[in-house]
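Re: weekly structure request thread

Next one in the queue (229 aa):
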Amino acid sequence: MNLAQTPTAPSKPRAFDLIAFDWDGTLFDSTGIIVRCIQAAVVDVGGQRPSAEAAAYVIGLGLMQALAHAAPDVPPEKYPELGKRYQFHYKQHQNDIVLFEGVLPMLAALNERGYLVTVATGKSRRGLDEALQFSDLKGVFAGSRTADETAGKPDPTMLHELMTQFEVPPERTLMIGDTTHDLQMALNAGCPRVGVSYGAHEPAAFHALKPLHIAHSVPDLHTWLLQHG
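Done, posted below.
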């Protein structure tokens, strides 16, 4: 989607002031790589290879929380090694991860309209900071929170801290993510939420969490935000 195809923003007042995006599977096309890295890490420490569905389910959780859930047969004393093996495999492929097409025009349009554009992610602070070195993302986000500096999803601490930082109430804060963990976090924080169906979780699981919309592509999400955000 090029800039010439960018939807035109309506003139009506904004419904939200702060928009918090999940990272992996929402902005970055990383789900497949993360699934394969989780599977490889579990096998490395002697666990049974989790299914792709089981590995995808834990995306969005904090790293150790996710790996422990994906590898129930791995004893807790091996969790540090499991984490190291995941990080090893991920580093081999992190440069293969790209933004979904249309993300940059969408983020630019939201900033131009005056939204506080932020990130609430299960990634580590170090991992997010490395990703934000991507030149086109510098200066795009007003703030961010990660699982290791707050609490893993669906705990609402990440959203609470962002709302406190920018003095925005829950009803004016929108969470966007590709997993039930993202939407449950928003529900726990009292925030409206939007799901995207192109990431880690099947969108059928979203309905119980009452999202305002389920976007099936980045252009779909972009259009909805400009019309309803």
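The chain has a mean pLDDT of 87. DSSP finds nine helices and six strands in the chain.
Next request, please.
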